[in-house]
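PROTEIN DESIGN WORKSHEET
SECTION A - STRUCTURE
LENGTH: 488
TOKENS:
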């Protein structure tokens, strides 16, 4: 069966020039950490009619928040000539030589490197690929390669991140195959039985069954095995959701990506969006980040009696907390925090942005409603107003964009000077650059960072790439949305 489920096309981070990640100031290891995520390739093998397609369909359905494509090994069957077709019943379609594995490898290489491919559509009635059409398969988060012999060839196996073998009894497979081939593939009962005895069963014993030992997961009962499918989907989600930096720094948390979240990011990163929509979708995202961040606060157990007189064993929120926004863009996160935590106290820190560690860096920064403010000196604390008992509280530090980490470092340093324990600081961002994450995590390993996306890198002008521009200006309407947009 030929299936495909595709969403947006193109490679991850499309439109970015790889060379732009390699700025002179990037530490060598950053390049590795910032490399775009490779698609996750899953191989699904098993005997004919064991339920491979059914298992793949279920995995795809459950992974609905990710772009998933299915590639069938059947698409890479070598086509029979007109002459060969006349005696197709003598052809062994279950032998590895029946497939064009070189073409399959080329297709998987391309998909893994983020390119889209044209996959042939195989016609089981004519025993050859259709000459009139191809199927376009776009680069995706997850590629599922399904077929009787996908675990047979070592070169194909080595490209896989996960190998699955679908198991079913031989009689079950045969019964299903008779059904399917007579109904869908235009075969007679006699031809199915003959092919089974002559080719299908021997090839299963010689090639398919021996490849089972390479599987990471064996699924008995195929598509009916909900527990196995749930576990597989859970594993894939974990692997996909984890940015490399989250593996390096335990305290970095990226909220789980969904199409809704990507959609919101797509809107707020679009330079053409109007201010109203920018604020609307930023607010939605901020609210999610804030809710996620609150999830890291401690709680105490609490029981209540429900209106039915039953006991509900629940928990009570942590009461000793406050917000601190890094002015100005951090103020955009205050409403969401107030909406989630009734009566929460929110302090402010204003930092003059500049170079770091004594280095003189000149770049342009906008502050408040002033137009442009050239800076040529180190970060400087301009203003702070914090709750007096802040050392007793958990602190949700607010800044939508973590770029160099200079402001964050200074703000956290100030909180530590006020005796806030490092482990009681939760830093909330919408987007974070790896450089900023490294800086914060290196200096303050116990500070938790919660963000909705980690971007690729900082540009030579210290702007987050791909980023979303000056967040504060876009949110508070102090940039010039009315000006015509000019091409770079
Ligand atoms: N658990 C099941 N119970 C009943 N029929 C099934 C089950 N799993 C698959 N089938 C049927 O068996 C046939 C082969 O299943 P499929 O998933 O296409 O197998 P494969 O891709 O391994 O050849 C299909 O007609 C399918 O509807
Ligand atoms: N022209 C062909 C090509 C393949 N087959 C059989 O299909 C089986 C593989 O497909 P599944 O969906 O069952 O995995 C394989 O066992 C071939 O015998 C065919 O009959 N005719």
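SECTION B - SEQUENCE
RESIDUE ASSIGNMENT:
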């Amino acid at each position: 069966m030929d299936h495909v489920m595709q969403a947006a096309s193109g490679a991850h981070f499309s439109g970015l020039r790889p060379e732009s990640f390699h700025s002179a100031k990037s530490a060598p290891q950053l390049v590795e950490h910032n490399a775009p995520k490779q698609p996750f390739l899953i191989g699904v093998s098993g005997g004919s009619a064991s339920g491979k397609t059914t298992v793949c369909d279920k995995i795809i359905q459950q992974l609905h928040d990710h772009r998933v494509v299915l590639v069938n090994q059947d698409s890479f069957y070598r086509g029979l000539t007109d002459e060969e077709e006349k005696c197709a019943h003598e052809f062994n379609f279950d032998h590895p030589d029946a497939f064009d594995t070189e073409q399959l490898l080329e297709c998987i290489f391309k998909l893994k490197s983020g390119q889209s491919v044209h996959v042939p559509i195989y016609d089981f009635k004519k025993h050859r690929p259709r000459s009139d059409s191809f199927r376009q398969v776009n680069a995706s988060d997850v590629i599922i390669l399904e077929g009787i012999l996908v675990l047979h060839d070592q070169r194909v196996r080595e490209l896989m991140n996960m190998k699955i073998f679908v198991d079913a009894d031989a009689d079950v497979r045969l019964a299903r195959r008779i059904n399917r081939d007579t109904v869908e593939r235009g075969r007679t009962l006699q031809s199915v039985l003959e092919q089974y005895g002559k080719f299908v069963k021997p090839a299963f014993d010689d090639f398919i069954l021996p490849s089972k030992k390479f599987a990471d997961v064996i699924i008995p009962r195929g598509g009916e095995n909900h527990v196995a499918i749930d576990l597989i989907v859970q594993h894939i989600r974990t692997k996909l959701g984890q940015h490399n930096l989250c593996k390096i720094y335990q305290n970095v948390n990226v909220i789980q990506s969904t199409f809704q979240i990507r959609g919101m990011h797509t809107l707020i990163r679009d330079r053409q969006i109007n201010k109203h929509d920018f604020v609307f979708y930023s607010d939605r995202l901020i609210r999610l980040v804030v809710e996620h961040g609150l999830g890291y606060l401690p709680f105490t157990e609490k029981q209540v009696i429900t209106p039915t007189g039953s006991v509900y064993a629940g928990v009570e929120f942590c009461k000793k907390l406050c917000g601190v926004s890094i002015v100005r863009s951090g103020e955009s996160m205050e409403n969401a925090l107030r909406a989630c935590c009734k009566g929460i106290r929110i302090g402010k820190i204003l930092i003059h942005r500049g170079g770091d560690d004594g280095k003189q860096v000149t770049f342009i920064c906008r502050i408040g409603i002033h137009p442009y403010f050239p800076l040529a000196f180190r970060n400087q604390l301009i203003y702070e107003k914090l709750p007096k008992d802040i050392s007793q509280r958990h602190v949700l530090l607010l800044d939508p964009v973590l770029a160099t980490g200079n402001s964050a470092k200074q703000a956290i340093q100030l909180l530590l000077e006020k005796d806030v324990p490092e482990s009681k600081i939760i830093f909330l961002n919408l987007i974070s650059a790896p450089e900023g994450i490294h800086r914060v995590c290196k200096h303050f390993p116990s500070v938790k960072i919660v963000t909705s996306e980690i971007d690729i890198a900082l540009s030579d002008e210290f702007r987050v790439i791909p980023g979303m521009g000056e967040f504060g200006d876009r949110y508070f309407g102090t940039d010039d949305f009315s000006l015509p947009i000019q091409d770079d």
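SECTION C - NOTES
Residues 114 and 139 are 5 Å apart (CA to CA).
The pocket of adenosine-5'-diphosphate (ligand 1) is lined by residues 1, 46, 48-54, 176, 180, 222-224 (CB under 6 Å).
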